[in-house]
DNA sequence: TTGTATGCGTTATCAA
DNA sequence: TTGATAACGCATACAA
């Protein structure tokens, strides 16, 4: 009546006595038995580690298909030291800007058999360090760092342990591949667009000064002005922090100061949205009274009222390229991805003076 | 001169002969040696699996601290069957709507020692099934499904294998916890807000009919109208797909049809943005000529021109609660999280007729 | 080309 | 309360 008391296997009884009632996932071992080969052979076929005879290969492939075998990444991670996962240190998992990059990364990693592991650093270097700890403890095979605050040296040190792709900076070191936007050029484009429309009194709303790209964008603004013989009026420069609210406040300050301007270049779209709202509240129309151009060209910018002219950043492409470069690094190839040059998308928020 | 040819350990030499030049992470084994106890004891202390004497516990704790030991989740996953990770099936990693939920999930899982594994289903049930396969192969301890297309039965089946928290539907089954917005009530609130402002010709832009919440929102609209003695005019209902463009087209169709209306209720904010743009293109002002209310209250809605009145969905809270419920399930507790009721945020896109 | 044996770092079983 | 010891599922060094 009662079951015998002989010791039972630790977990569920795989391939139990009667019938086919398999419980739990199929193992490589089972595939090997089914195909009549050794586990090593199956492993070799799976990883292309060695040449195996065609007939055995076929037998194994068949067994895999019949059994619906799927390798266990956890075991693979333990045994081979590879987890087929790559850590992605982003700044905010819900960032409207990096969102595109996240999608690009996911879209290219998944088909390659790798899984991205996203984690947010919140623009805080100690938080970033913690993220990296978590990721390393999970034995990710590589690291994609989307911009981030940690310094170059720390990154180089990390690169001795695992391959790294970093965006938002130029950094060349062994095991590191970097991908960078040309923020300077982009900002120049935005300013020149306004200039070409006849604007001379162009306000600038800067991004978070702690972000490296922020300075570049301001520099591009200054350079374009100077190149066109327009003196930069420091009263026209307002500091922001890349959030909508800061753009709104910047324009309110500017309006309150009484300094005249006919156009605004915001260092990102979110601040441009805030600026547009500030203008609207004062009864100023875009672009009739004030022209407005943003930076990043986030998804919603095509549908604001009016649609926002903006410097397009190929963020999705950035994600794809970063992931592709990581795949290259992981495969021992030298990545050669490069970002397309920025360009401006002219919509309805800018007009001739 | 040359190094000896005796067989070397498979990977790097841990705890090598001379000095302290440890390579690679510290292992539990090393902690055990250092503390003068067996590995099992260390494991027990780590997991609280059994009571251990205070002195040994202290010795182990010290060793852990001195060595900077950090358990290897991969090995844990293999041995114990727990990976301390939970899979999150979302619809788009860059969704402006679910973004808040992702953040909520991350914010609550990470401090608890769990890592979220995000993967996008793209509103496609076969893609969703693939996602779940990937997640299961990675041996996640639980699954959070943000809405999704897969049917209840499939979910119930899955729940026999691992705990599941699902949003966007009511589903009670063993191992499943569901969290649902009251879309019906929310839609009623939006419509009643418009009604209270004196509007009677209220257009409705529906969401993707394939989404379950879409029907609820339409139903709420209809019920509110009827409850207030306003006949619903089918000509006022336009179909959308939750994207901005579809909102724009819906209003263009409505305008072209010549059917009069003084207000619009869009089933989500993104379509409301499209609608606002369509209105703007025709020279119609919001809210002066047409009142507009959205649904979801996404982050950007506070900064559109004009700021959008919308039914607030506690998405971040949803993420937190889903993750909390998952933690409960994982710990063998019965979750009791419940979502707050929807409420409408009145901003500047609605006005009395 | 293939199989055997061993180890990856941890948890779980069992006996002490 | 504690310690051997055997898994977990796979990859690799080595022998054949």
TrEMBL record, chains A, B:
SMART domains: HTH_LACI (SM00354). Gene3D superfamilies: 3.40.50.2300, lambda repressor-like DNA-binding domains (1.10.260.40). Residues 26-80 form the HTH lacI-type domain. Keywords: DNA-binding, Repressor, Transcription, Transcription regulation. The keyword S-adenosyl-L-methionine does not apply. It comes from the Bacteria. Residues 1-35 are annotated as: Disordered. Coiled coil: none annotated. Residues 27-56 form the HTH cro/C1-type domain. Pfam families: LacI (PF00356), Peripla_BP_3 (PF13377). PROSITE patterns: HTH_CROC1, HTH_LACI_2. InterPro entries: Cro/C1-type_HTH (IPR001387), HTH_LacI (IPR000843), LacI/GalR-like_sensor (IPR046335), Lambda_DNA-bd_dom_sf (IPR010982), Peripla_BP_I (IPR028082). One of its GO terms (molecular function) is DNA binding. The keyword ATP-binding does not apply. This is LacI family DNA-binding transcriptional regulator. It comes from Ideonella lacteola.
